[in-house]
Specification:
The chain is mainly β and 698 residues long. It has eight helices and 47 strands. Keywords: Membrane, Transmembrane, Transmembrane helix.
Length: 698
């Protein structure tokens, strides 16, 4: 490529990069507060993501070309219009493209008076191809909202513990006398059934459900292997009778002859209902004083409708189910009398077990935020755990999330449905260059070891980049007494929304937290800017939540119900409730969002009794899957594409073809009269173009 007009040799480029990186390091160092925490990591990820998108969609090169052709204002318009979409309103920015006389800058301080957190990212991009750059753009003011249907599978109730750890089942006769879970009005002769409440969102179309029921016999005798109890799982007044022989034998517990079993039951759509549901279990013959309940999970599948701007793609990436047991020393797990198994994998759909005869074990410090052969879905022993029991029986699985180059990433979350004796959860993301911890049961928990701090939905967006990403979910059972119990993941998946259209979508995620009792209240500030058309609250709370309240922390209650929703339309609720119109103006049927900064409070209530969930204190929990989304369907820039060719006409034509495909893929009917094209000569631009992006928050 011809470098006329630029002193830009390879040595000069490398020297410039060193100077810029060194300067950026100084700026970041002096501007940062002493605590370099999660918010700073999010700011770094935001800068990386913005530069990646702008490189892939061609806006950085386009700005450089326009500056070289003398169109400084056009170059600044390209940069500003892009960053206005990619950078949240609460974050200021300054970007510089090029060097020397060919430098173009754009900035917006967003009205911030000072900076408490600053990030500087430097990138050197390759110059445009020699010849001509063609650009085609399409003028479209905004897109309409269209209905998107999404199938959701979530855990609507979960118990992870030994029922015999709770009164009255911790008596000598255990389940033989106290043959209901739940139970009420109990005395030494037994008790009455007590319905445990769970909910399914209103306005959802229910497709069906599943329950996973564990059974154990503490009878520790080689000559007599204890049977699974029989059971009646009573759901919404409908009986599901399960005989002992219907259970699948899993294994003998380590260092004993106690037996473990599992049963999977299916629920039809007609057996479940929107809003309040309930269940209890009646333990039946051959239940005896050795019988115990080690786990129970109830999952529901339903379809929800969500109005999103046209042209947004929602991608769902499913994890492969995995489950089983791993132990640190050879055991007779299959009950054949030979102590030669170190664990087994379990297929929930077929009931098939695959035993392995070699130790699978890894230390916590060698596993977390590292690539690992143990993330293949086969159980393993996790050692050196820093909180709670130092060892545990774990299982882990990874799923790939591929976000097309040049796409604007709007939202992403992972849905986790664990079962068995799962006590803790770890969620990590690989963004193409490094692993980062997104969620750890020990973090932000008022319970020292995060026991039972197992999420349903975790927010991922701030950790992802365009291209290939990976999400790893690891769950484990704490084994303080070397009781390595069965753990599993089923129907887990990641959901990601993105588009190449210049739509703006801002998320304000709550911080995950587990309370030390059955009540938890969290607040989150969020910003509504001009031209916003939709404000939603997505909900991700504990899997044994009994009640949820949403308000502004000022007496205005938006939602107060025993039904846990999947998503709430904050704007519609605000426009219709008493003391509303905090974020809206107008009437309940015709309202607009008011720009401003607001505070939302979410309060959740856990189960009435600790034995309903297995958490020692009926702990309430709220996770980062709870997030406010503010959406702007009005375009802040034209839709455009670029292409390169040896002639101006060919470059313009190719750009037009690419633009037409982008519009058609988004479902937009194209009016050819609204397409504009241009061509710019690029033969005299440098081989490398330095880019520097500063972000700061107050």
């Amino acid at each position: 490529m011809d470098d006329k007009g630029f002193i830009f040799t390879t040595d000069a480029v490398l020297g410039l990069v060193v100077v810029i990186v060194f300067t950026a390091s100084l700026i970041t160092y002096f501007a940062l507060p002493a605590y370099n925490g999660e918010e700073h990591q999010h700011l770094q990820a935001l800068a990386d993501s913005a530069l990646s998108v702008m490189e892939q969609d061609g806006s950085l090169r386009l700005a450089a070309v326009k500056k070289a052709r003398g169109d400084t204002s056009g170059a600044q318009l390209i940069l500003n219009s892009e960053l206005e979409i990619l950078i949240p309103d609460s974050t200021a920015y300054n970007i510089t493209v090029g060097e020397g006389s060919n430098t173009v800058s754009a900035s917006d301080d967003r009205g911030l008076l000072y900076a408490t957190d600053t990030v500087t990212k430097v990138k050197v991009i390759s110059g445009p191809e020699e010849g001509w750059m063609g650009r085609a753009w399409y003028k479209l003011e905004e897109v309409q909202f269209v209905n998107q249907q999404q199938n959701v599978t979530t855990t609507v109730w979960n118990f992870h513990n030994w029922l015999s750890n709770f009164s009255p089942w911790n008596s000598r006769s255990k389940l033989a006398t106290y043959d209901y879970w739940g139970i009420q009005n109990w005395n030494r002769y037994g008790g009455d059934p007590y319905a445990i409440q769970f909910s399914i969102p209103d306005n959802a179309t229910i497709l069906g459900g599943t329950f996973l029921l564990g059974a154990n016999s503490h009878h520790n005798d080689w000559w007599y292997k204890g049977q699974a109890y029989g059971a009646n799982v009573h759901v919404n007044s409908i009986d599901h009778i399960i005989s002992s022989s219907n259970f699948t034998f899993l294994n003998l517990r380590p260092n004993s002859y106690e037996t473990m079993y599992n049963y999977q039951g299916n629920l039809t759509a007609s057996e479940l209902q929107n809003g309040a549901n309930s269940f209890y279990i009646n333990f039946r013959s051959p239940v005896d004083s050795y019988s115990d309940l080690p786990w129970f999970s109830m999952l529901a599948t339903y379809t929800t409708n969500l109005a999103l701007p046209q042209g947004i793609t929602t991608s769902i990436d499913n994890f492969t189910d995995c489950a089983g047991v791993a132990v640190p020393s050879a055991q007779d797990l299959d009950g054949d009398g030979v102590w030669n198994e170190y664990g087994f994998s379990y297929n929930l759909k077929t009931g098939q077990k695959t035993f392995f005869n070699q130790l699978r074990s890894v230390n916590w410090n060698s596993y977390v935020n590292r690539n690992s052969i143990y993330s293949d879905g086969t159980p393993f022993v996790l050692t050196g755990i820093p909180h709670g029991a130092s060892n545990g029986c774990a299982v882990s699985k990874v799923v790939d999330i591929n976000i097309p180059d040049g796409s604007r990433l709007f939202d992403s979350y992972v849905v986790i449905n664990s079962y068995g004796g799962v006590d803790n959860t770890l969620v990590e993301v690989w963004d193409g260059s490094q692993w980062q911890t997104v969620f750890n049961s020990f973090d932000n928990s008022q319970v020292s070891d995060g026991y039972g701090n197992n999420p349903g939905i975790i927010y991922l967006r701030d950790y992802l980049k365009t291209g290939n990403n990976k999400v790893r979910v690891t769950v484990w059972d704490q084994a303080p007494g070397n009781d390595y119990d069965f753990v599993g993941l089923t129907n887990c998946y990641a959901v990601t929304t993105y588009s190449k259209l210049p739509i703006k979508w801002e998320n304000f995620a709550f911080t995950s937290e587990q309370s030390d009792d059955r009540y938890l209240s969290k607040t989150r500030q969020f910003t509504i800017g001009s031209e916003a058309k939709q404000a939603l609250l997505f909900v991700g709370v504990g899997t044994s939540t009994r009640h949820i309240t949403v308000d502004y922390n000022n007496g205005t209650v938006l939602y107060d119900s025993d039904t846990v929703p999947f998503v709430l339309d904050l704007a519609a609720l605000d426009a219709s409730v008493a003391k509303g119109h905090v974020i809206t103006s107008g009437t309940s049927g015709n309202y607009t969002l008011k720009p401003g900064n607001y505070t939302l409070r979410v309060t959740v209530t856990g189960p009435a009794n600790a034995w309903e969930s297995g958490d020692n204190d009926a702990n309430a929990a709220l996770f980062s899957g709870t997030r406010v989304a503010v959406i702007y369907p009005k375009f802040l820039q034209n839709i455009w594409e670029t292409s390169y060719a040896s002639t101006a006409s060919e470059a313009e034509y190719n750009a037009g073809v690419t633009l037409n495909k982008t519009l058609r893929d988004a479902g937009i009917t194209v009016d050819p009269s609204l397409i504009r094209t241009e061509a710019m000569y690029t033969g005299d631009l440098p081989n490398a173009i330095p880019v520097r992006l500063n972000l700061w928050k107050q």
